[in-house]
Design a protein that fits this description.
The protein is mainly beta. The protein is about 5% helix and about 45% strand. Strands 1, 2, 3, 4, 5, 8, 12, 14 and 15 form a nine-stranded mixed β-sheet that branches.
Length: about 170
Amino acid sequence: MKWLFLSAALLVKGLDASDSFIGPTCPLTGFCANAFSNFTQTILPGNAALMEEINVQTRDVDLLLTPLVGDIVLNQSGIYKIAWSAQAKPTFSGSWSLGLTLGHVVVAGSVYGGTDNIPQNVGGSVLISITAPQVLRLSNISSVPLDLVSSAGPSVSLCIALIEIAQ
């Protein structure tokens, strides 16, 4: 079994979370690496959350573009468990939502949101099968700009665990 952890945090075989982990803890178990953000940011509709804090880079998960455009490149085929959370609010009133996209297609069961114009904690988790390479993003699925806010913790956090490698 091989693990990868992405806040967006990744579980990586051979790396224990307690050894060198900085930032929020991942609700998944196993070995880990992570990327997350402590900054307030505005995400336009269709755009991804940026995560400037990266602890580990592996050949299975490429986080090079995560701080710049929000892309998380998954280079290993298999089944992934992905859990994410954010503190978000719309810049205007109305309903809003965040969700995972894989190759710019919304991942079923990964979209969560709210209706109030006050910061709310949102998040979820899904199991998805990936045929590598694929680009994963935590995206603004709504039609209004969203503010991700940092109060008592990171503004955005995502965990990815590779739970089964494709044969």
